[in-house]
Write a structure and sequence with these properties.
Region (Disordered): 1-40
Number of strands: 5
Radius of gyration: 19 Å
Structural class: alpha+beta
Protein name: DNA-3-methyladenine glycosylase 2 family protein
CATH architecture of the domain at 133-325: Orthogonal Bundle
Biased composition (Low complexity): 20-30
Number of helices: 16
CATH class of the domain at 133-325: Mainly Alpha
Helix content: 25-40%
Order of helices and strands: EHEEEEHHHHHHHHHHHHHHH
CATH topology of the domain at 133-325: Endonuclease III, domain 1
CATH superfamily of the domain at 133-325: Hypothetical protein, domain 2
Distance between the termini: 21 Å
Largest sheet: 5 strands, antiparallel
Organism: Pseudonocardia nematodicida
Biased composition (Gly residues): 8-19
Strand content: 5-15%
Strand order of the largest sheet: 1-5-4-3-2
Length: 345
């Protein structure tokens, strides 16, 4: 099996150059003081001027069913999300009302920052108007999912940590590693007990990640290559946040300056941190064949994926997203990949 990456298997990376290794104080990386947990909540209501599928837009930010930074309640009617911000961690609950209005309620030192970004998070900065579907599968998905937009979290670090963990391993392995690191080294989610769902955690900050002992990485199932890439990124995390301001190819190039972050990982971050409509995860284990079977009825490699998606530039990732949402499933021809447990090595 080719050591590629994807929805169930992480990316093949490591082609970036070594980043700055100086000692830094990552902005917004340290936990907020405990008073933020009981501080009065911050509220905002926003009515999007377009159809909105709240869960569909936020879903790419979730890392599996056991993600401790994500929780749904009321049959999915309320989505809880914990994130880092330049001003400390934030817990935010998102609800969509019958009239289309979205209400966001946040706690923590970063709540105001996160609440201010509500429209961007839900796709207000995205412009799908120029997108043209060149294949029936894509056109049908566009018609059936009018509420899908490419949202922008505005935070590189929160997207980088799980993306690197997904390199060259199954989704099960990556989600387990992220879950264990967040639960053991991330802080409790800000907000009052009994209101914020029990067990939610803040993603480990760059400073917390740099303090993790070697044996704890091994215990979490993270091999040396992924650990090294995460530590390199943690040193310059404050500088990498600028990628979300640069956006596009320029932002992805900045990310790839870190050793261990290549095309695949940079694309995975860009898709979520600034809703990059053209950031395709080349080097993925599943995407070329999923796209190939959906559009052409056969397998593809990266060269074939590049060719078939060419008409969609500069919105190739949007086309991939619609294909993923179409419900199409590539035929299975062999046994599933068996996860490796690095903890036993």
């Amino acid at each position: 099996m080719s050591p590629r990456a994807g929805t169930a298997m992480g990316g093949v990376d490591g082609d970036g150059v070594t980043g700055d290794t100086g000692t830094v104080d990552p902005v917004g990386a340290d936990p907020a003081d405990t008073s933020a947990r009981t501080r009065a909540p911050v509220d905002r209501e926003w009515r999007p001027p377009f159809p909105l599928d709240l869960y569909g837009v936020l879903a790419p930010l979730r890392r599996g069913r056991g993600d401790p930074t994500w929780h749904t309640a009321g049959d999915g009617g309320v989505i809880w999300r914990v994130s880092t911000t330049p001003h400390g961690p934030a817990t935010v609950a998102y609800r969509r009302r019958a009239d289309g209005t979205v209400r966001a309620t946040g706690w923590g030192g970063g709540a105001a920052w996160e609440i201010d970004r509500l429209p961007s998070l839900l796709g207000a900065d995205d412009d799908p108007a120029a997108f043209v579907a060149h294949h029936p599968v894509v056109a049908d998905a566009v018609r059936r999912r009018p509420g899908i937009r490419l949202g922008s979290s505005g935070r590189v670090w929160d997207m980088l940590l799980p993306a690197v963990l997904e390199q060259k391993v199954t989704g099960t392995e990556a989600r387990r590693s992220f879950r264990e690191l967040a639960r053991r080294f991330g802080d409790p989610a800000p907000g009052p007990a009994g209101v914020v769902p029990h067990g939610m955690r803040v993603p480990p900050s760059p400073s917390q990640v740099r303090a993790i002992p070697d044996w704890e990485w091994h215990r979490a199932g993270v091999d040396h290559a992924r650990r090294r890439a995460i530590l390199h990124a943690a040193v310059v995390a404050h500088r990498l946040e600028r990628a979300a301001e640069l956006r596009g190819e320029e932002g992805r190039i900045l990310l790839r300056r870190v050793s261990g972050i290549g095309v695949w990982t940079a694309a995975e971050i860009a898709q979520r941190a600034w809703g990059d409509p053209d950031a395709v995860s080349f080097g993925d284990f599943h995407i070329p064949n999923t796209v190939g079977w959906a559009l052409l009825g056969r397998d593809l490699d990266d060269a074939g994926l590049l060719e078939v998606l060419a008409p969609y530039a500069p919105q190739r990732q949007r086309a991939v997203r619609y294909i993923e949402l179409s419900g199409f499933r590539r035929p299975r021809f062999g046994p599933r990949f068996s996860p490796r447990d690095y903890r036993s090595l």
